[in-house]
């Protein structure tokens, strides 16, 4: 009976969207920085999408022509099932060819190589407790250092919070933390970047203003990506969404992040083939660096909590203050206050940050 209940609970969790992590419960050691490694993976997947686009641009016109001829053949006319299959294939190939000749189609092709991968990584990590599979290190170790860290579930800031809910974040949807380009954040943020970031891109390019897209993102964080499921409104999640939007936007358009403008990652040639930008080539090792910032760290960019678990989490954070100050090298309240205040905007841009009743380190630990 217990096994059945566990299976049902796990199935429910995998259908939900909210994962939580804990950057207040910190390890006693430094994690290996895998910014270069995950950047290389994203670069490789983008290159794979480009390869598929160019291959299809070359092969699909002939394939479509051949399918059209088969549809008109006596064999197809005599076999209804074959006719249906041919027409289905023709529609799919025609749609694919039409799509990859457009900017949005190119971006969609890159998303196809990323979105599902990071959904699966979220589930491997948050549900099953397995290490990342997208980087080539055995036993979760790089250069003698651990890659990800997750505290025992009963030792997190959520350990005694959220039990008024059917699903508690402390036991079913809790993910590890990692370090990329010096920033410590939850694995779930990568899922937000490459899935919800793409949703932002699609909605914006369907005609929704960026402000309206951000409002939509806020509604999801109040809903199945956050508060509705586990009582947490994560500013870090929304920052990851916004950062991911800029990644997808930057594939074919220049984007400005802070005081720097980044050239498009890819270019579309006159014959519709796609290539990496040769005028301003991107560095594989730092591919993701512009999109990674302290906004993703939920200790530095704190969350809003539902009232029934807020008091429990406050106490848990206070109990971790000395470790938090040590791990993040924080010496005074003004330093962390200025840093946390700067999280209100993402490099000067609104991203949906909720700025009240946050569990701020400068207020709780100094």
Structure write-up:
- The chain has 366 residues and is mostly helical.
- The chain folds into two domains: 20-50 and 110-357, no CATH class; 51-102.
- The chain contains 14 helices and ten strands.
- The chain has helices at 2-15, 35-71, 74-78, 80-99, 103-112, 115-126, 188-205, 210-222, 227-230, 235-250, 307-318, 321-327, 333-341, 361-364, and strands spanning 141-142, 145-146, 177-180, 183-186, 232-233, 255-257, 260-262, 266-268, 274-276, 304-305.
- The strands form five sheets. A two-stranded antiparallel ribbon has the order 1-2. Strands 3-4 form a two-stranded antiparallel ribbon. A two-stranded antiparallel sheet has the order 5-10.
- Helix 6 runs antiparallel to helix 7 and helix 7 crosses helix 10 (235-250).
- Residues 2-16 have low confidence and may be disordered.
The tally of domains stands at 2
| Major sheet | 2 strands, antiparallel
How far apart the termini lie comes to 48 Å
Strand/helix succession? HHHHHHEEEEHHHEHEEEEEHHHH
Low-confidence stretches: 2-16
What structural category characterises the helix and strand content? mainly alpha
Lateral strand order in the biggest sheet: 1-2
Radius of gyration: 23 Å
The counted number of beta strands is 10
The rough form would be described as: elongated
Strand content: 5-15%
Number of helices: 14
Mean pLDDT: 91
Portion in helices: 40-55%
Concise structural overview:
This protein has 366 residues and is mainly alpha-helical. The protein has helices at residues 2-15, 35-71, 74-78, 80-99, 103-112, 115-126, 188-205, 210-222, 227-230, 235-250, 307-318, 321-327, 333-341, 361-364, and strands at residues 141-142, 145-146, 177-180, 183-186, 232-233, 255-257, 260-262, 266-268, 274-276, 304-305.
